[in-house]
Amino acid sequence: MSWLKERQTMKLSRFIFGFVLSGLILTMSVMSLSAPASAGVSVGISVGVAPPPIPVYQQPICPGPGYLWTPGYWAWNEDGGYYWVPGTWVVAPVGMLWTPGYWGFEYGHYGWHAGYWGPHVGFYGGVNYGFGYGGVGFEGGEWRGRSFFYNRAVLNVNVGVVRNVYSRNVFVNNVHVSYNGPGGVLVRPSREEERWEHEPHRMALEEQRHHEFEAGRNREFFASANHGHPGIAATGRPGEFHGGHLDHASDRGEMRGNRGFNHGNDRHVDDRHFDDRHVDSRRSNDRHEDRHDRHADRPEPRTEHHEQPKHGRDR
Hints:
This protein is an alpha+beta fold. It has helices at residues 2-34, 191-196, 206-215, 223-226, 273-284; strands spanning 43-47, 67-70, 73-77, 81-85, 87-91, 97-99, 102-106, 109-113, 116-118, 141-144, 147-151, 165-166, 179-180, 234-235, 246-247. It has two domains: 1-34; 43-284, no CATH class.
C-alpha cells in the first residue's frame, strides 16, 4: 500500500506544480497587456553598424495651425540597411509633443528606441535633429491651452497663415552624429526625462507609420544608394514624396539658407551645456509674444551662436 500512497503523492505534487506554473504565466501575460505603453524604453531593432550622420536640410514651410514638426531619422531594413525617413509636418494630438526616436549603442549593438507622443518631450539620446530638437527638449513651440504656438526663430512658419507665433532665440548644437553611445553623443537622461518616460504615451500616428513604410519602399532613401545624402530630406506632409513641398539634403556640411542647424563641425559631446543654459530662461519667457510684422511672408532668420562644447555638467 505504501507504493500506492507514493504514487498518489507524486500525482498531487505534479498537479500543484502545474497549477502554480499556469497561474504565473497567466499573471505575466495580463501584466504585459495591461501595463501602460512606455514607448522609447524597449528596443525593437538591433543592428551591428552605426547609422549615418543626420543630413543637413531646410525645413518645408508649416502647412497650417496645429501641425507639429517631426524630424527625419535613419530607419533600418534587413534587406537594404539604413534608409532615411524624411522629416515632415504632422497634425499633432492636442496637448501632446513628439519625442523623436533614437539609436543607442548597448552591448555591442545599435538599438532603436521608438519615438512617441506625450505631455513632455522625453529623452531622445541627445541627438541633434535640428529645428528645435537640439538634443534636449523641444524649442520650436509650446501648447497654450488647446492652441500650439510656434517659435519663428526655429520653425519655418508663414505668419499670414499661422497667427499663434512668438520669437525666441536658441543656442545651436553643432553635433550631427545620429546615435547615442561611444563615438556618438555621450549623454544620459536627466531625472525629469526618466520620470517622463513613465508618463502615458501614444505611439506614432498612422500617417507617421505609413510615411516610414513608404520611405522604406524607395531605394533612393537607402544610405547604400544615396551615401548619406537622400534626394528628399523633408516633406510638407506625411507621404508627400512628390510635389513642391520638398527639401533635398545638402552635399556639404553647411546650412543651406537660414533654417535648421549649422553642422559645420562634426564634434562629439559628453554633456548638454548648450541646452542647459537656456532651458531655465525659456520658462521666464514663456509668454513672450511675437512683436514682428504680422504681414511678413516668411519668418526672420534665427540667431545662431556657435560655441565649443564644454564639460561643466555632471549627469
